[in-house]
Each structure stands twice: as C-alpha cells, then as structure tokens.
C-alpha cells in the first residue's frame, strides 16, 4: 500500500530512524541523498546497505535490514539519485529483504515504489508502507510572476550534485545564528527528507514548475528570508528546464553560485564542458532579471571537499581574486564563509 507524502508533512511523521540503501552505484555523485541525510540528519541514520558491485559508501556501519531493524531502524531510505530516477531490477531483492525484515521503504526516485508489483505485494503481506517523497501536491498553479513580500536567496550551480543543497542549508543556519528569521526551502527529495517539507521541482509538469516555485516560497514578513535549494544547472543539457523554472518562480533577491573545484565536465554527460563560474553568474542574472529585476550575485560557494585544507584555502583565495566576489566553502566555515554571509545580507 503506497503512501504519498504531501508538501507540508513534517519529517517526524516519516518512520525513522533509517537504514540508507546505496544500491550498486559506483559514482559518488549519485549518492547525494545518503550523504545529505548523513551530514544533516545523522541522528536519523543507523547504517547503510548496498548490493554486490557497489563501491560507494556513506561511511556508516554496513548492516543487513534485519540487523538495522534490531537496532531500531523503522525504514530503509533509497539513498541514491541516479539519472532518470530509476529503480533497477537488480535492487529488488534488497528492497524486498527490507520489507520482509519489518522496514518500511522510503523512495525519492522518479520511479514510484507503489508502481512496482513485487514491492507492492510484499508490502501488503507484511503490513509495510511504500512512501514516495518525490510526489508533487495536486492543483499546482501556473506562475503569475507577481512579486511577493519577504526576501529570497537561491543557490544556482554550474552543474548537478556539487553543493547547492548544502550551501542553502548552511546559509539558512548562518542567518538564524545571526538572529534572522530564515527558512530552508527544499526543492528536491533529499532536502525534503532533511527538512520534512518542500516540493520536488523535477517531478512537476513543466507548465506548472514556475508556479510550484512560487508556492514553495510564499509571501512572508518583509524581514523574513527564504533560502531556496537550487536544482540542476541553467547550462545543463538535460535539466536546465527545472533550473530555469525554479529561478523564475522563486524570484530571488540574491543568488549564490555553487561550483566544485576541479570539475571540468557535466556529471553524467562528459562530452559537455562545464560552464565557467563567470558564465553561470551572467546567465543567472540575465535570466533571473525577468521576474526579479533587482537580482544580484552575492558570491560563490566552492566545493573543495577533495582538497586538503591548505590547497582549499588557496583555491578559494584565487577564485575570489579572479571574480572580485566573496568565495567560501560553507562546509569549512571560517572567515571566508562569514564574508559570504555578509554579502548575502548586504
């Protein structure tokens, strides 16, 4: 029996804690759901489980669904966001094992758990739930383009899976630490699992996507900040439409451009070169000005996770000098990140 999770359901309503399922993936970039839960909701994660052939780990204890259930887990979350959001047939034995061990299944894929007959049948027999969080609410409006009260910041990227969600979470937390009224607005399945609410932008019919972005960030007090999780890239050969709808509908006052140091080609599309940070800033401001004429770029979030501390500091300093804008790695924090936060609020 399938249960869809509506836009405003709190995270506490989902069965937790979780066992994180990593499938058989070999590309770390596709494990962003598992990484996001590990980093931003560690108290909800008891371990990880994968299939034969998988080489990616979230660094959590490896365990079977039966062991996870003994340790208190109540659900297994599919921690993978692969191209097309599909559930390969090779994963079915592991997913069935979780149901049989007494765990509910939570998915954020385009493929719906409840549409897979073997899962549906076993869930019914064992009294387990199949929960899809990548399910937009009914009745989404067409965008109006009307300006809304409150202030908004949107993270935009040079590519997928390089830090837009982490940057938005870190900035929202920094705003609150400074005493500001700020909300993180999740626009993808991982963000929804972390925040407990949001709207899966890439599951919305195209005509209603900008309207969905308006709904995600409604009218608010003049001093309130919505920090909106970006999706994809305006230059992405497959996903640019989602990014543009989110940019137009969210009507950000401020954008922060996100980039991974050293990435040169589009993830999953290696025959496409990555756009430069400068090109991405220019494109975001030109396109964003259509619905937010005063839009500005506060700076750059640079993912330096593959670099040692000294090299990361050098890379951040070099890009800041090149752009004449604040640059920081939010996960490293420090003075550079404080300068980026200052620029967002300026």
From TrEMBL:
It comes from Luteimonas composti. Coiled coil: none annotated. This is DUF1611 domain-containing protein. It holds the Pfam family DUF1611_N. InterPro entries: DgcN-like (IPR011669), DgcN-like_C (IPR035086), DgcN-like_N (IPR035402), P-loop_NTPase (IPR027417). Residues 53-136 form the D-glutamate N-acetyltransferase-like N-terminal domain. Residues 142-336 form the D-glutamate N-acetyltransferase-like C-terminal domain. It comes from the Bacteria.
């Amino acid at each position: 029996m399938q249960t869809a999770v509506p836009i405003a359901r709190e995270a506490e309503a989902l069965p937790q804690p979780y066992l994180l399922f990593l499938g058989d993936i070999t590309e770390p970039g596709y494990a962003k759901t598992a990484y996001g839960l590990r980093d931003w909701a560690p108290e909800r994660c008891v371990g990880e489980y994968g299939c034969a052939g998988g080489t990616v780990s979230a660094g959590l204890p490896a365990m079977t669904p039966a062991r996870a259930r003994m340790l208190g887990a109540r659900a297994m979350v599919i921690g993978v966001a692969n191209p097309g959001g599909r559930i390969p047939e090779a994963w079915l034995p592991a997913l069935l094992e979780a149901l049989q061990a007494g765990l509910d299944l939570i998915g954020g894929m385009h493929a719906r758990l409840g549409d897979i007959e073997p899962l549906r049948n076993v869930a019914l027999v064992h009294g387990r739930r199949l929960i899809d969080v990548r399910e937009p609410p009914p009745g989404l409006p067409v965008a109006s383009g009307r300006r809304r009260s409150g202030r908004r910041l949107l993270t935009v990227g040079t590519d997928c899976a390089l830090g837009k969600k982490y940057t938005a979470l870190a900035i929202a937390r920094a705003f609150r630490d400074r005493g500001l009224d700020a909300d993180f607005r999740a626009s993808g399945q991982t963000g929804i699992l972390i925040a407990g609410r949001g709207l899966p932008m890439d599951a919305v019919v195209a005509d209603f996507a900008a309207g969905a972005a308006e709904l995600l960030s409604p009218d608010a007090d003049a001093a309130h900040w919505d920090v909106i999780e970006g999706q994809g890239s305006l230059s992405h050969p497959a996903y640019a439409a989602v990014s543009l709808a989110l940019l137009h509908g969210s009507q950000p006052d401020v954008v922060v451009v996100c980039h991974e140091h050293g990435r040169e080609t589009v993830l999953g599309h290696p025959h496409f070169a990555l756009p430069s940070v400068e090109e991405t800033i220019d494109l975001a401001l030109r396109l964003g000005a259509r619905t937010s004429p005063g839009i500005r770029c506060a700076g750059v979030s640079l993912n330096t996770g593959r670099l040692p501390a000294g090299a990361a500091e050098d890379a951040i300093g070099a890009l800041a000098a090149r752009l004449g804008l604040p640059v920081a790695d939010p996960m490293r924090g420090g003075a550079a990140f404080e300068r980026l936060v200052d620029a967002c609020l300026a």
